[in-house]
Amino acid sequence: MTDAxxxxxxxxxxxxxxxERGLASRGYLADRRLATAVFLALKLQRPLLLEGEPGVGKxxxxxxxxxxxxxxxxxxxxxxxxEQREALYEWNYAAQLLHLRASxxxxxxxxxxxxxxxxxxxxxxxxxxxxxxQALQSPAPGAVLLIDEVDRADEPFEAFLLEYLGEYQVSxxxxxxxxxxxxxxxxxxxxxxRDLNDAVKRRCLYHxxxxxxRERELAIVRAQVPQAxxxxxxxxxxxxxxxxxxxxxxxxxxxxxxxxxxxxARALVALxxxxxxxxxxxxxxxxxxxxxxxxxxxxxQLATELLAPEAA
Length: 312
Prior knowledge:
This is MoxR-like ATPase. This protein has 17 helices and 9 strands. By secondary structure, the chain is α/β, with parallel strands linked by helices. The strands form 3 sheets. The chain has a 5-stranded parallel beta sheet with strand order 2-5-8-1-9, with helices on both faces. It has a two-stranded antiparallel sheet with strand order 3-4. Helix 2 (16-25) packs across helix 3, helix 11 (214-224) packs across helix 12 and helix 11 packs across helix 13 (258-270). The longest helix is centred in the C-terminal third of the chain and has 15 residues, at 230-244. The model is unreliable at 109-114 (pLDDT under 50).
């Protein structure tokens, strides 16, 4: 059997509508603007930078794309102090040392054999691949690389990413330039804890991922938590929409994202909740909010106001 015969059938990416349907089949309901950004990133083979509040579906998009495209998902989780070797590669020093010791037995350090042994330790078999290098060297159909929360890394790391983002290649001093055989589908996410360098942005397509409108959020809750009844799903979507809107938004430090809406619906189903009431809202506030002050702010009185019809 040929390699081509073993590959999964290619998904229909002939149009933005087809891409929307494909993502929906993977449980990800993208609006038109997001679907357009993803479609162009795939067609132009450009990285896509997604910015937005936590919990709006940036990471989930990478997971849905991985499944839709039949590509391995590789994730590089960024954090303060992230080093190049943790993102790209590092040498297997223990294996290299064992090789040198085995080769130097009875060989003078000045001999050509010793020099050859030292050169041999810088071979691909002694290279430990990290996500960036894995993405570049993934065989067909390639990989989906998620560079998650890139805003948490420092500026030198951003500069290090430029070669990869611009040319889908990296330079390894001992081996030379490694270019992608199949360009990875690359998504970068940012929660805007700080502004990214313009050089990074210029190498990417850009999309701001906002909170969804009520109908799309309701559709997401229904798709992700089918066990929730129609009335409960609608109440969840309405409640979260009101929390994010004025005048209630001023009462909280951070509004709940889609991830919290879905998790809340699952928790309510686990509690056999049929209809929301102030008591169950207060009791489950820690699922919607992750800040102590926000949980405290959602008291019985505010929950009653948020559930009242006139709050709409």
